[in-house]
C-alpha cells in the first residue's frame, strides 16, 4: 500500500487538485497582478454548492446523474462568487495602491469563510460529502473511483483551457491582455470582459477541484479553502506565475513533493520526527521558499503583464 | 460645491417644512425634553439592566440619553451664535446639531426597542419610554428644518448629505497663549480618559451599544464642526506635551478601576495595540504586507516562556531576569524576521504576503509539533508552556496586589503599567524612525521603488530593516504577554481565529485605525478588541465582521479612521480639489497644502 | 573654467540584447568632465535602453560601461552611489512628499545615519539632519523652489516638478547627470529656463548627458552630440556637424539612405515581400523591427 508507485500516484492526484485551483490564481495574477486570496474560499464554496445540490436531490439518485449535477451546482456558486468579487470588490480598486486590493482580498476570504460557517447548516464541523469509494488495483497501486474522476476532470479541463487560449478569439484576447493590457485595450479588446472571464474560468476549475476533493475525502469543511488555497498559490508560483501550464505542472510537482516528503522524510537519519502528515505543510512551504530563493520565475517562467 | 452658508439668506429653507423660528425653538425644547425624559421611568421591571424603573433617578442607558440631549442643546445654542458657545460651531453649519440629534435619537430608540425585545413586548414599556421616544424625534426633525443651502432645489438625499457635511473651510481660531492651549489639551485628555473608562466599564452589552451611539455621533458632530481639525492643529503645535498627557492618561487608567478585570482588558488592549504599532511600521510606513506577523509575537512569547523558569520549559533550570528575557524575545524575533525577510524582500511585494502567511502557519505547526513525539521537544507541543512565574522587579511582585496611595493595583494592573512603559518605547521608536533618513527612505520605497532606487536607496536593505524592526517589537511585546497570560500555547498564533491575537486581527486593527499614524493602530486594536468583548453576541461573528470591515474600508475609506495625510492622498488620487489633474504649462503657482 | 578631457563616463562596445532583439549594438560613447553631451535619435532608436545600461537598470550583454575608470556596478542604487544621477522621462517624483522631503531623499546616498542613529538621536544625528536640510535648501535655492519647500510635490506645476526632479538628482552629488527628455511638454519659456539651469549645473563641474527631442535645445546646449539610430551610433560630433549631416535628417524622416543601420534586414524583408507577390511595397521600408523593450 505504501509503495513508491502508490505514493507517486497519491502525489499526482493531490497535485492535480492543486493544479486546478492554481489555474485560478495564475490567470488572475497574470492579468491584474492581484493575488486573489479569496480564491481558496471560492474553491470551498464550490464544494458547498455541490453539497447543496446533492442534499436537494432525492437519495438513491445514481452517481452518474449526481456528479454532473453537483458539478453544475458547485460551478454556479463558485463562478458567481468569483465574478461578484471581481465586480464589486476588486474592480473599484483597479488604480489603487497595491496594498488595497490585497487587503480587500483578505477581508473577502475571511468573510466568505465565516458566512459559510455561520449560515450554512451545521457547517462548523466537517460535513459529509458523497464519496466515490470503489477501489481498483492497478499493479501495486490502488485508486478509487473518485481518483478516476479527478484524473478525467483535470485532463478535460486542461485540454479545454489549452484549446480555448490558443484557438478562440477570446483566448487570444486573453493572452494579449496578459501581456500588455493597455495596448490590448487600444486594439479594441474589452479588457474588463476578459478579466471577468479569467475570474470565471478560475472559479469553474476551482469548483471542479472541490467536487473532486469531496468525492475523494468524503467530507468538506469551511476551512478547507485556506490551506488548499495557500498550497495552490505555491504551486502557481512554483510553475511560473501567469503561466497556466506552469500552474498544473507546479501543482503536480508540489503534490508529489509533499506526499513523498511525508512518506519518506522520517527515513532520513536525523529527521525521524519530521515526517508524517503533521509536517507535510511545513515541507510544502519550505519548497515555496526554496523556489523563491533560487528560481523565482518558476519552472516554466512567468507571464505577467509589464506594468512598469 | 463652493456654497457659503449665509445665515441671513431668506431664500434658503430646510428639508422639513417648519417656519424657522419654530424650528429653532423646537430644537432647543426637544433637546431639553430628551434630556429630561431620562428622569422618567421607562420600564416597570428591573429585569432590564440598569434599573430604569424609578422616576427621578436615571439609570444606565438613561444617562446616555441625558448626555446626548444636553449635547444637542449645546450644539444648538452654538449654532444660534449664543455668545460664549460660538467656539463649538465655528462655521455655523447644521451638521453638528443634526448629528448630535441623531445620536440622541439612536441611543434612545435603541434603548426603548431593546427593552421591548428583551422583555418580550411593548407592554413592558412605561409611558416614560414613549415620552422619551417622541422627545428624541423632535430635535432631529427640528434640526432638519433649519435652513440649509440648496434644500429647495436638490433631491432629499442630496440635501440630507449637505445637512451632515463638514464645512469646506474652517476659519482659523484666534491665536491663544501656550498655557491655554495646554489647558485645552489637558481637558480633552481628561474627558477622553473618562469616556474611555466608561466604555470599558460598561457591564452589559446594551449599555455599550448605547455608549457607542453617543460617542460615535458626538465625535462625528465635532468633526463636522471642524473642532477635530482645530484640535489636531493644536496637538501639532504641542506634540511632546500631548504625548506626555497621553501617557499620563494611560498610566492613570488602572487607578480608576476598582476591578482588576477591567485592567485585564486594558493590558490586552495595550499588548495588541503595541503589536499593531509594530506592524504599522512594516505595513504603514514601508508598505510591506506581512500576513504572518503574529508569529513574531509568538516567537517572543515562547522565548520568554522558555527562559522564565517555568517547570514545563525545556530549559527549566534557567530563569532570566526580565530585561534579559525581553532582549532575548526581541532578538529571537529579530532573527526570524531576518531569516524570513532575506529571501523574500528581494521579490515583488505580493510574494511577501504569501510567504509571511506561510511562515505564520509554519510557526504554529512547528511549535505544535515540537513535543518530543513529532519533533524534538522544544515547546511542549499543544499543551504549551504553562505556569510561567510572575515577574518581580526589586521586590515588587507583579503577581500580587499592591496598595498604592489608597488605590489597589491588582495583578493585571501591574502588568498594565509595565506595558505602558513598553508601549512608550515602541511609540518612541516609531516616531523617531518615521521622522528620519530611514523613515523617509521607507516612504520613498513605498511611493515609487524605481525612483527611490535611482536615488541610491538600497531597496532590499531598507525593507529588511523595517521588517526586522517590526519583528523585534512584536517579540518584545510577546515577552510581556507570556507573563500576563501565565502560559503560552500554539493555538492563538494563527492567521485568523476567534480571539485575538491573530494576524487578521492585527492587520484589521492597523487598517481600520489608520495606517502610518501613531494613534491609529492603538485605536484600531482597542475597538476591535472591545467590540467582541463587550457585545457577546458578536463574538461568534467577529471574524465575519473583520472581513466585511476590511472590504468596506478599502472601498470607501482605505486610510482608516485616523488618516495619515500622506496616505489619504495616496489612496485618493484626485484628493487635491484645488489642483487640476492635467498639467499647466505656465508657471502659475499652485495652491498649497501647507501645515496639514 | 578650462574643459579637461578626463573621461567621466566611458561606454565601450556596449551591446544590449533581449532574446532575439538587439536594442543597442556596439556603441562607443564617452563623456568628459565639464561636458554637456546630447544623445538624439528617432523613436525606437534604443536611446532609453542605452540610458538604462548607464544607470545599472540593465547590464550590457556585451561591452562595458565605466564611470571615472571603474566599471559600473550592476545595481541602480550602487550606480547612484558611484556618482551618476538621473531624472526620468515621465516625472517620478515622490508625489505625496513635500518638495523639501523629495530633495532630502536625494541626499540618501551621501548620508549614512541609519536606524540606530535615528532612534538614539545623538548629536551626530541632529547635525547630519541639519546638514542635509541645509544642503537641500541650497539646491532648492539653486533651482528657484526654496519658497515652496513645504508644498507637496504633486501640487507643483509641471515645469517646477521637472526642476524638482533635477534638484533631487543633484542632491546625490553626482559627477555625471543624466537627463531623460528634460523639456518634454514644456513651453518655450520653460525650455529657455531649463537651458540656463543646465548651463549652471555644468558650471558647477558636473558633466551632463541629455536625451532630447527638442533639437534647438540640444544643439544650443551640447558640446557634442551623438545620434543613435536602430541601436547603432550613426554620427557623433559638434552640433554643427551633426545638424549638417544628411543622414541624420534622413534617419529622422525615415527615408532610406546609404549605410543606414539595419539596412541588411530591410533588404531581406523587401526581397521577401517582392517574392510573396503582395501589393505595392510600402514607402517606409525601414520600420519593420519591433520595438519591444523600449519605451521611446
TrEMBL record, chain A:
Membrane topology qualifier: Multi-pass membrane protein
Cellular compartments annotated: Cell membrane
CDD domains named in the record: TM_PBP1_LivH_like
Keywords noted in UniProt: Amino-acid transport, Cell inner membrane, Cell membrane, Membrane, Transmembrane, Transmembrane helix, Transport
GO CC, alphabetical: plasma membrane
GO biological process, any: L-isoleucine import across plasma membrane
Gene3D superfamilies, A to Z: ABC transporter involved in vitamin B12 uptake, BtuC
Pfam families: BPD_transp_2 (PF02653)
Stretches that traverse the bilayer: 12-32, 63-83, 148-165, 194-214, 245-265, 277-294
The keyword Cell inner membrane appears for this protein: yes
InterPro entries, per the entry: ABC_BtuC-like (IPR037294), ABC_transp_permease (IPR001851), BCAA_transport_permease (IPR052157)
Keyword Cell membrane: yes
GO molecular function: L-isoleucine transmembrane transporter activity; L-leucine transmembrane transporter activity; L-phenylalanine transmembrane transporter activity; L-valine transmembrane transporter activity
Family annotation (PANTHER family): BRANCHED-CHAIN AMINO ACID TRANSPORT SYSTEM PERMEASE PROTEIN LIVH, HIGH-AFFINITY BRANCHED-CHAIN AMINO ACID TRANSPORT SYSTEM PERMEASE PROTEIN LIVH
Homology family: Belongs to the binding-protein-dependent transport system permease family. LivHM subfamily.
Name of the featured protein: Branched-chain amino acid ABC transporter permease
Organism of this sequence: Streptomyces aurantiacus
Amino acid at each position: 500500500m505504501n509503495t513508491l508507485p502508490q505514493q507517486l500516484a497519491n502525489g499526482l492526484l493531490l497535485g492535480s487538485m492543486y493544479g486546478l485551483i492554481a489555474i485560478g490564481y495564475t490567470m488572475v495574477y497574470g492579468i491584474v497582478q492581484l493575488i486573489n486570496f479569496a480564491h481558496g474560499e471560492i474553491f470551498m464554496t464550490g464544494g458547498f454548492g455541490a453539497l447543496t445540490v446533492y442534499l436537494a436531490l432525492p437519495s438513491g439518485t445514481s452517481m452518474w446523474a449526481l456528479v454532473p449535477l453537483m458539478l453544475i451546482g458547485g460551478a454556479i456558486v463558485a463562478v458567481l462568487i468569483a465574478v461578484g468579487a471581481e465586480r464589486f470588490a476588486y474592480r473599484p480598486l483597479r488604480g489603487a495602491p497595491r496594498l488595497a486590493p490585497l487587503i480587500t482580498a483578505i477581508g473577502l476570504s475571511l468573510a466568505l469563510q465565516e458566512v459559510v460557517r455561520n449560515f450554512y447548516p451545521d457547517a462548523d464541523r466537517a460535513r459529509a460529502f458523497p464519496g466515490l469509494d470503489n477501489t481498483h488495483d492497478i499493479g501495486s497501486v490502488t485508486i478509487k473511483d473518485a481518483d478516476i474522476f479527478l484524473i478525467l476532470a483535470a485532463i478535460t479541463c486542461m485540454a479545454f483551457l489549452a484549446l480555448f487560449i490558443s484557438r478562440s478569439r477570446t483566448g487570444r484576447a486573453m493572452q494579449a491582455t496578459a501581456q500588455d493590457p493597455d495596448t490590448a485595450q487600444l486594439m479594441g479588446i474589452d479588457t474588463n470582459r476578459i478579466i471577468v472571464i479569467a475570474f470565471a474560468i478560475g472559479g469553474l476549475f476551482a469548483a471542479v477541484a472541490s467536487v473532486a476533493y469531496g468525492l475523494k475525502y468524503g467530507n468538506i469543511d469551511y476551512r478547507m479553502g485556506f490551506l488548499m488555497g495557500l498550497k495552490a498559490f505555491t504551486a502557481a508560483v512554483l510553475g511560473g506565475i501567469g503561466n497556466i501550464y506552469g500552474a498544473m505542472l507546479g501543482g503536480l510537482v508540489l503534490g508529489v513533493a509533499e506526499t513523498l516528503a511525508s512518506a519518506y522524510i522520517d527515513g532520513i537519519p536525523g529527521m525521524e520526527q519530521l515526517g508524517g502528515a503533521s509536517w507535510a505543510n511545513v515541507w510544502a512551504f519550505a519548497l515555496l521558499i526554496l523556489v523563491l530563493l533560487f528560481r523565482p520565475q518558476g519552472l516554466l517562467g512567468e507571464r505577467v503583464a509589464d506594468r512598469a | 460645491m463652493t456654497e457659503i452658508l449665509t445665515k441671513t439668506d431668506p431664500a434658503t429653507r430646510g428639508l422639513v417644512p417648519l417656519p424657522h423660528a419654530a424650528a429653532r425653538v423646537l430644537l432647543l425644547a426637544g433637546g431639553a425634553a430628551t434630556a429630561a425624559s431620562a428622569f422618567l421611568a421607562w420600564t416597570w421591571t428591573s429585569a432590564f439592566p440598569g434599573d430604569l424603573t424609578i422616576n427621578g433617578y436615571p439609570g444606565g442607558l438613561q444617562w446616555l440619553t441625558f448626555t446626548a440631549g444636553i449635547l444637542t442643546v449645546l450644539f444648538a445654542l452654538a449654532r444660534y451664535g449664543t455668545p460664549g458657545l460660538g467656539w463649538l460651531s465655528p462655521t455655523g453649519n447644521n451638521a453638528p446639531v443634526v448629528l448630535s440629534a441623531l445620536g440622541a435619537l439612536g441611543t434612545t430608540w435603541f434603548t426603548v426597542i431593546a427593552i421591548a425585545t428583551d422583555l418580550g413586548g411593548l407592554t413592558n414599556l412605561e409611558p416614560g419610554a414613549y415620552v422619551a421616544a417622541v422627545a428624541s424625534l423632535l430635535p432631529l426633525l427640528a434640526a432638519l428644518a433649519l435652513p440649509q443651502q440648496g434644500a429647495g432645489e436638490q433631491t432629499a438625499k442630496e440635501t440630507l448629505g449637505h445637512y451632515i457635511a463638514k464645512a469646506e473651510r474652517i476659519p482659523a481660531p484666534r491665536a491663544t497663549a501656550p498655557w491655554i492651549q495646554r489647558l485645552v489639551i489637558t481637558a480633552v485628555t481628561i474627558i477622553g480618559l473618562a469616556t474611555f473608562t466608561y466604555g470599558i466599564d460598561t457591564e452589559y452589552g446594551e449599555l455599550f451599544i448605547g455608549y457607542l451611539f453617543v460617542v460615535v455621533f458626538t465625535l462625528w458632530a465635532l468633526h463636522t464642526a471642524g473642532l477635530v481639525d482645530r484640535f489636531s492643529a493644536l496637538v501639532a503645535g504641542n506634540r511632546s506635551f500631548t504625548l506626555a498627557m497621553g501617557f499620563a492618561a494611560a498610566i492613570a487608567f488602572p487607578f480608576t478601576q476598582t476591578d482588576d478585570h477591567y485592567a485585564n482588558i486594558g493590558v490586552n488592549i495595550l499588548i495588541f495595540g503595541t503589536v499593531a504599532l509594530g506592524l504599522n511600521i512594516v505595513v504603514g510606513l514601508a508598505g510591506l504586507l506581512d500576513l504572518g506577523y503574529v508569529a513574531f509575537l509568538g516567537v517572543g512569547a515562547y522565548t520568554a516562556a522558555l527562559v522564565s523558569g517555568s517547570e514545563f520549559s525545556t530549559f527549566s533550570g534557567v530563569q532570566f531576569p526580565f530585561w534579559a528575557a525581553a532582549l532575548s524575545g526581541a532578538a529571537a524575533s529579530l532573527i526570524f524576521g531576518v531569516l524570513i525577510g532575506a529571501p523574500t524582500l528581494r521579490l515583488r511585494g505580493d510574494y511577501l504576503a504569501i510567504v509571511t502567511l506561510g511562515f505564520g502557519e509554519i510557526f504554529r505547526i512547528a511549535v505544535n509539533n515540537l513535543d518530543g513525539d513529532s519533533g524534538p521537544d522544544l515547546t511542549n507541543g499543544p499543551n504549551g508552556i504553562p505556569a510561567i512565574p510572575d515577574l518581580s522587579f526589586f521586590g515588587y511582585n507583579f503577581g500580587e496586589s499592591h496598595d498604592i496611595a489608597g488605590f489597589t493595583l491588582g495583578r493585571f494592573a501591574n502588568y498594565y503599567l509595565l506595558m505602558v512603559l513598553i508601549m512608550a518605547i515602541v511609540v518612541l521608536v516609531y516616531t523617531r524612525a518615521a521622522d528620519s533618513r530611514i523613515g523617509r527612505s521607507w516612504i520613498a520605497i513605498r511611493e515609487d521603488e524605481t525612483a527611490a532606487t535611482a536615488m541610491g536607496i538600497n531597496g532590499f536593505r531598507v525593507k529588511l530593516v523595517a521588517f526586522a524592526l517590526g519583528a523585534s517589537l512584536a517579540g518584545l511585546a510577546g515577552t510581556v504577554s507570556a507573563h500576563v497570560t501565565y502560559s503560552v500555547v500554539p493555538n492563538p498564533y494563527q492567521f485568523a481565529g476567534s480571539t485575538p491575537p491573530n494576524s487578521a486581527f492585527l492587520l484589521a486593527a492597523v487598517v481600520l485605525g489608520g495606517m502610518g499614524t501613531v494613534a491609529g493602530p492603538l485605536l484600531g486594536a482597542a475597538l476591535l478588541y472591545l467590540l467582541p468583548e463587550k457585545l457577546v453576541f458578536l463574538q461568534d461573528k467577529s471574524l465575519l465582521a473583520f472581513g466585511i470591515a476590511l472590504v468596506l474600508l478599502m472601498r470607501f475609506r482605505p486610510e482608516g479612521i485616523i488618516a495619515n495625510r500622506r496616505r489619504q492622498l495616496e489612496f485618493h488620487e484626485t484628493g487635491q480639489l484645488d489642483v487640476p489633474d492635467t498639467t499647466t504649462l505656465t508657471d502659475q503657482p499652485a495652491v498649497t497644502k501647507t501645515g496639514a | 573654467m578650462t574643459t579637461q578631457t578626463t573621461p567621466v563616463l566611458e561606454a565601450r562596445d556596449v551591446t544590449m540584447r533581449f532574446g532575439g532583439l538587439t536594442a543597442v549594438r556596439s556603441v562607443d560613447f564617452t563623456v568628459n568632465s565639464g561636458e554637456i553631451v546630447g544623445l538624439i535619435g528617432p523613436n525606437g532608436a534604443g536611446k532609453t535602453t542605452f540610458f538604462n545600461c548607464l544607470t545599472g537598470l540593465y547590464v550590457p550583454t556585451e561591452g562595458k560601461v565605466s564611470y571615472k575608470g571603474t566599471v559600473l556596478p550592476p545595481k541602480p542604487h550602487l550606480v547612484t552611489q558611484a556618482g551618476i544621477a538621473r531624472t526620468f522621462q515621465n516625472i517620478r517624483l515622490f508625489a505625496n512628499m513635500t518638495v523639501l522631503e523629495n530633495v532630502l531623499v536625494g541626499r540618501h546616498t551621501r548620508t549614512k545615519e541609519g536606524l540606530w542613529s535615528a532612534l538614539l538621536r545623538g548629536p551626530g544625528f541632529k547635525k547630519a539632519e541639519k546638514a542635509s536640510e541645509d544642503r537641500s535648501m541650497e539646491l532648492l535655492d539653486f533651482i528657484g523652489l526654496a519658497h515652496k519647500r513645504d508644498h507637496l510635490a504633486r501640487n507643483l506645476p509641471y515645469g517646477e516638478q521637472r526642476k524638482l526632479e533635477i534638484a533631487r538628482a543633484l542632491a546625490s552629488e553626482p559627477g555625471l547627470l543624466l537627463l531623460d527628455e528634460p523639456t518634454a511638454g514644456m513651453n518655450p519659456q520653460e525650455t529657455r529656463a531649463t537651458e540656463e539651469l543646465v548651463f549652471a549645473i555644468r558650471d558647477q563641474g558636473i558633466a551632463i548627458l541629455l536625451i532630447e527631442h527638442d533639437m534647438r535645445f540640444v544643439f544650443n546646449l551640447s558640446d557634442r552630440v551623438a545620434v543613435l539610430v536602430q541601436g547603432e551610433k550613426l554620427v557623433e560630433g559638434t552640433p554643427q556637424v551633426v545638424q549638417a549631416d544628411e543622414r541624420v535628417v534622413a534617419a529622422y524622416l525615415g527615408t532610406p539612405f546609404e549605410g543606414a543601420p539595419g539596412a541588411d534586414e530591410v533588404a531581406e524583408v523587401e526581397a521577401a515581400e517582392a517574392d510573396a507577390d503582395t501589393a505595392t511595397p510600402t514607402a517606409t521600408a525601414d520600420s519593420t523591427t519591433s520595438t519591444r523593450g523600449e519605451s521611446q
